[in-house]
Each structure stands twice: as C-alpha cells, then as structure tokens.
Amino acid sequence: MSRRTVLISAGVLFCLYVLFSFGNNTRGFLGTDTGGKVATLRAMDAHGTTDPDVGYWAERWDPDGSLHPLYYTSHIGSRWVNVTTLPAVYAALPLYRAFGYRGALVVPMLGAVACALAAAALARRLGARDGGRLAFWLVGLASPVTIYALDFWEHTVGLALMAWGVVVLVDLAQRKKVAWFGVAAGLLFGGAATMRTEALAFGAVATAVVCVGLARRNLPLAVAVGALVAIGTSVPLFANDALERSVLGTSLRAGRAQGTVAIAGSVTGDSRVKEAAITSVGINGEGDARSLFIGAAVVAAIVAATLRRDWRLLALAGALYAARAAQGLGFVPGFLMAAPIGLVGLTLGWRRGPPAALTLLIGFVALPLVWAVQFTGGAGPQWGGRYVLLSGFVLAVVGVVVLADLPAVLRQCMIGLAVGVTVFGGVWMHQRTHDIAVSAARLEALPEPILVSRIAHLVREGGAVHDLRRWLTAPSSRDLEDVARIADATHADRIAVVGLDGQAQPARIGSLVRQPLFTRLRLLHGVAIQVWVYAR
Q: What is the pLDDT of residues 221-249, one digit of tens each?
C-alpha cells in the first residue's frame, strides 16, 4: 500500500471506531479492570493532579483496605491505587479531561489502528498478493482488536507493540534488517511489557525462535541479535520502573510480575489446563465441558473445510456459532473462536514458506509459558483470550494470507464467520455497557448512607458511576464484622447490603437488624441481585 493509501485507511478505520463507540454507554465497560482505570481517571481529574490515588473514605477504621469499594485496590504508602499500568492512564488523562471517557478511548482506538497496520506489514512479508489490504481490514474490523478498541483497556496498545516487534523479528530472520534492529524489537516488546506482562514471554520466545534460525547460518549474528533484543527490552522496563517509583515510591509492574510467578506455582495443573482450554476453544463464558466440546467441534469443522476445500463443512461451523448465539449474548473467550480465520492459517500456513512457519512458531511456542503464568479465575469473562492476543493475531494474519489459496465461496464464508462473531461481540458490548450503567445508577439511588456489596467486583464494574464515599465491598462473612464496626463508628442507622439472588445474609450485622422487606433487582445483563436493608 502507498503511504497515501495507508494514511487514508488508518483515518477511515479510526473514524469507524469512533462511530461504533457511540453505540456503547460511557458509564459501562467490557471488564472490571476498565472500571478501576476510569475511576482513577475520574479521581485525577477531580483533584486536578496526576496522582492515581482513588482514596478511601473508611481508611481510619480499615487501614488495610480490606473493605475498599474497588476490589484489588493496593495501599501504597498514603495512596490507594487501582491501576496496574501508569503509561496508559497518563496517556489518556489529558484526553479524559478534555472530552471525558470518549476522549480516553482515543488511546485504545489508536492502538487498534496500529494493530491493523502491523497486520498489513506482516502480511506483505508473508507474500500477501494484495499488499496486506485484506489483513488490515479484517484484523481491524473482524477480530478481537475491534472489541478492545472500544474499551479503555491497554490491550490494543500492548498488542500493537508486540505485533510490530514480530514484524521486526521476521525481517531480522530474513536478513532484511541489520542486527541493530534487534534493539528496536526489544524496545517494542519492552514497551508492551509495561502494560501486558505476557509480552515478556512472547518477546523471549519470539527472540529465541529467530535466533535459533539465524544460528544455523551465522552464530555470531544470532548471539548479537539476542543480546540487542535483551538490551532494548530493558530500556522501557527501567523507564517505567523509574516512573512508578517517582509517582508511587514503589514498582507496580515488577510486583505484578513477581506475583504472577508466585501464583503460577500455587495453582493446580488441572486449573491451568482448563483455563488454557477456555482461552483456546471456549465459545461462551461458562467454560463447561459442553461449551468446550462445541468449541472443539467448530475447530474440527473449520480445519476439515479448509483441508477438503468444502464450504458445506464450514456451514456446520456456522451452525454451531448460530447455536451459541441463540443462547444469548455474552463473552467468547477462546482466541480460536473469536478469530476463526486463524484456523485457516494454522491449517495451511505451514506450507506457505519459512516466513509464515516462523510467524506461526512465534505465536504458538509461547502459549504454554503464557498459560502457565496467566492469572487464573478470569478465563471465561473475557473476549478472545486477552492474555494470548498475539497468538490470535499472528494466526489471523497468516490465515488472511492463505485465504487467497482457497475457492472463492469458501473464502467468502470464512470472512463472513469472522465478521459475524465480531458483530456478535459488538452487540454484546453494547448491551453490557448499557446494563452496567443502568444497574449502577439504580444502586446509587438507594438512600442508605452506607452501601455494602457482597459481590467482589460489583462496584469496580461501574467504577465511573458509583459514589466511592458510600460503598464498602465485603465478600466474606468475616468482612461483615468490620462493616458493623464502621457503621457504629460513623453512627449509620441504616445500611443496604447488595448480594447475589439467593445468597444467604445474616440476621444481624453488629447492632443492625435485617429488615423483613428486601428488593430484588435484575441487573448486570440479566443477573438477579437482592438488596437487604439493615437498621438499628
């Protein structure tokens, strides 16, 4: 593509993202992490500072923050911090101050455009006949990149940096760049790691794959490339560490990485295998055996259709997707399910030549390592395997390139599948953001001076809406003892306790007695909750 075509295409794609974003509610989000980030932006904007402190109204009585309304809030010095990466928040802050949440969305949208450009660049290196145009539009508009462009998560920016790192490494493997470009690849993966911890695993594996290939022909070059990538990776990591220490007095990302490794050693292998299966072939957020079986059947149907060049087998996969859609809107967590064109790349890409095989290796060899260290417990409620987005990306690009080798009908059907599942995700995100916004507003209307959530992520889910000076989050029964202490200290005569429908609530919380009447609300995309009032 010419430079003019690239600029026009990038501009059109960005405008489409802006247009799509107006279908979503700015007071609801795709994930709870977004709620925490937006709550942080709101606090920084309200205070007119760059300090990411969200505060805690009950700190005097709960200095450890065990009841902080935003789950996963860290008490760092005198600050209460609910973000895991500062660069993305600081990049969005001036935009948020100027235009609100829609302004902050410019950051993930630009990241998504960069992902699409990287897809086009990689496709050209793999021999795409159209110069990468189809890869640009399919990755930009018919992949998980589309979904993450519309939510203030750092995933598109992190993925874009990793994707361009892969482009540089493919050039190095083909001897189209001198060894010094290893520094550029390292800078890209290191920059991604300041936002996405799994970038370290992907960067290390991608570098190793390239260096092994180079070592067969030129061992000194392979050693030089590996060393230069390592040097480049360290620069943004040290810079980010310095930023965090200057702002918070400690390092967030280093602590998060250490925590990830520690958790990896404490989680059972069965849990890891199940979550790996969910983020691969999970077709809904439940992660039950039936859904995994259906996902595996989709994989088998698409692979068979690709090998036999038979669109009727692909129709079977389409029918299974339709059956999933008939169950209702929700997450599609499997990266193979959210970007089915990747299965074409997985099936035929190995025959495309060394560059395509190398690209597939970069995406796949790292998967066991990422699965071994990813956070557990959240595999279902996500779109397209957010920890393995790079794997889905490289498969999709290779798949788009080899689509040209398939019959026209099969090619069009594959594109239709990819578009269909992404449209499903867009509609789901529309419903989810509106439901969260309405739910949060209804809960905020409760008149009690203290509101207590028994659901861990309830307040964090609507972090931009809730008045954090009224809420406490108390998932466990032991937490309610501390709630009673705070209610007594603040002389609150009434509190409202929010829990899942059917969740048992105690008759008393300290000196507060449960009232005979309670409210049942159907909120949060169909989940029923109950609100009990306790009074003295």
A: 999 999 999 999 999 999 999 999 999 88
Do residues 343 and 406 lie in contact, with contact meaning Cβ atoms separated by under 8 Å? Answer: no
- Number of Cβ within a 10 Å radius of residue 64: 9
Q: Is residue 269 part of a domain?
A: yes
Complete DSSP assignment for 286-297? T--HHHHHHHHH
In this predicted structure, what is the pLDDT of residue 262?
A: 47
User: Confidence class of residue 171 from pLDDT cuts 50, 70 and 90?
Assistant: very high
What number is the average pLDDT over the span 146-173?
Answer: 96
Are 25 and 59 within 8 A, CB to CB? no
Report how far residue 529's alpha carbon sits from residue 519's, in angstroms, rounded to the nearest whole number: 8
Which domain does 475 fall in, by range? 436-535
397 and 448 inside one domain: no
Q: How many other β-carbons are positioned within 10 Å of the β-carbon of residue 256?
A: 15
Tens-place pLDDT, residues 74-116:
999 889 999 888 999 999 999 999 999 999 999 999 999 999 9
Is 422 inside any structural domain? yes
The encoded tokens of residue 353 equal 């030549």
SS3 labels along 371-393: HHHCCCCCCCCCCCCCCCHHHHH
Structure tokens at 524: 């949060």
Q: What is the pTM of this model?
A: 0.93
- Predicted confidence at residue 523, as pLDDT, reads 62
Q: How many domains does the chain have?
A: 2
Contacts within 8 Å (CB) and 24+ apart, 364-370: 364/391, 365/205, 365/208, 365/209, 366/201, 366/202, 366/204, 366/205, 366/206, 366/390, 366/391, 367/276, 367/391, 369/201, 369/205, 370/198, 370/201, 370/202
Q: How many residues appear in the chain?
A: 536
The answer, yes or no, to whether residue 380 has pLDDT greater than 90, is no
More confident residue, 511 or 113: 113
Mean pLDDT of 449-469: 88
Q: What is the mean pLDDT of residues 469-497?
A: 93
Q: How far apart are the first and last CA of the chain?
A: 71
| Residue 466 CB-density burial (10 A; 0-12 exposed, 13-18 middle, 19+ buried) | buried
Residue 177 CB neighbour total at 10 angstroms? 18
Helix axes 389-403, 408-444, angle to 10 degrees: 150
Q: Do residues 367 and 391 lie in contact, with contact meaning Cβ atoms separated by under 8 Å?
A: yes
- Is the domain of 314 the same as that of 446? no
Q: To the nearest 10°, the Cα dihedral for 357, 363, 366, 370? A: -170
CA distance 172 to 209: 11
Looking at the fold, whether 185 and 326 belong to one and the same domain comes out as yes
